[in-house]
Amino acid sequence: MLFTVFTPTYNRAHLLGRLFESLQRQTARNFDWLIVDDGSEDETEASVAQFIAEANFPVRYFRQKNQGKHIAINAAVEQADGDWYLPVDSDDFLADNCLEICESLAEEASAASFAGFTFIHAPEELVGKTQSYGTKKWTGYNSYKWDFAGEMHYVFKMEMIRKFPFPLFEDENFCQESVQVIPIVKSHIILYTDHILAFGDYLEDGLSQNLYARLLKNPRYAMLAFKTKLQMAQTREERMALTQNYWDIVLKTKQPTLKAFLAFPIAFSVPFLGKKLMNKLK
């Protein structure tokens, strides 16, 4: 099996069918579908059972207690049979030729010893309007000039992503995926492309909504995310914004100050905290 298409899900039985149908339409049969259910309380299990009965490709389903998407990712990586890890959220769907193009990109990435490749996840309004894309390839992180609200979708070698599991912080259940992705792209070469192969719009109940409130409820993961993002910041303004966000979480959630200070680069914490102190003294 070449690709494991992985979908984490929580109470999304009403949405999974669209993704399933897009997998049924794939022009290549080089994948299996691995679903990790993060403790859903709806009809997810029954829906997946129907998918398994109808599918023209292998489907596997695992259920865990509710721990968050990042822990579902850890579980999927452990259980996956594929050589390549291709995540697709439950509210998204794939272009009909996604797996066919991915096979070609995987061959190219493997020949060059790259850790993975990318394609673009685009808004649903671009379905059927992607003819002018799919011609560019490059290896420089964050160098793509966007003309719509899309994002890079990473596909990694399974052996690579297994080296970068998410940490487990008790009593917290939300961690941004940058905590896993950035260490890989920072230390390995990625084949970036402008193929548009996945579609979906952000939903009101999605993890991307109300992000700041989620960060405050999961402060240790939030602090780790801001520290990790600092590795890829390209300007001083970006670095100081991440520093401000980091200390905002620390102070508002009353994290141990000394521990937080030692965990973040001093070169950015000292000027930020010094300025904050001076403003208080005015």
Supply the CATH architecture of the largest domain. Alpha-Beta Complex
The figure for the number of domains is 2
Helix content: 40-55%
Distance between the first and last residues' Cα: 65 Å
Give the helices and strands as they follow along the chain: EHEHEHEEHEEEHHEEHHHHH
Q: Can you give me a brief rundown of this structure?
A:
With 282 residues, the chain is an alpha/beta fold. Helices cover 43% and strands 18% of the residues.
Structure description:
This protein has two domains: 3-199, Alpha-Beta Complex (Spore Coat Polysaccharide Biosynthesis Protein SpsA, Chain A), CATH 3.90.550.10; 211-281. The longest helix is centred in the C-terminal third of the chain and has 17 residues, at 236-252. The chain has eleven helices and ten strands. It is globular, with a radius of gyration of 20 Å. Strands 1, 2, 3, 4, 5, 6, 7, 8, 9 and 10 form a ten-stranded mixed β-sheet that branches. The chain has 282 residues and is an alpha/beta fold. The protein has helices at 13-24, 44-54, 69-79, 98-111, 158-161, 178-187, 211-217, 219-230, 236-252, 257-263, 266-281; strands spanning 3-9, 31-38, 59-64, 84-87, 93-94, 116-122, 137-138, 151-157, 190-193, 196-199.
